[in-house]
Amino acid sequence: MPSRLANANPLRFFSSFREERDTFGPIQVPSDKLWGAQTQRSLQNFKIGGEHERMPEPIVRASNMEYGLDPSIRKAIMQTTQEVAEGKLNDHFFLVIWQTGSGTQSNMNANELQWKSIYDLYRS
Hints:
Strand order of the largest sheet: 1-2
Radius of gyration: 15 Å
CATH superfamily: Fumarase/aspartase (N-terminal domain)
């Protein structure tokens, strides 16, 4: 049975936006979310699924850590990774499973929000 939210605009719940850019140009992204332009385009271009069809938490929480990084960057990565593992950033994984096909959109969602969180932590 299809979700009754399948054709709903997921952005209707947000009131404040910031501008992000990619090779397609500028796009408005909810200001309180960590994702970037690619995730936003995916949300707008694939208006299918609903809240209960988002990426499963075990997939969202899977992560890998590289060594040899600047300690302050490593600390920001570790903090963000811990927040993902604890489910504190679940509201930033907004895509539904039907958008993942080859995994491009879900990978971009994870990359964008983790990069933004790491960048914000690193700057502070």
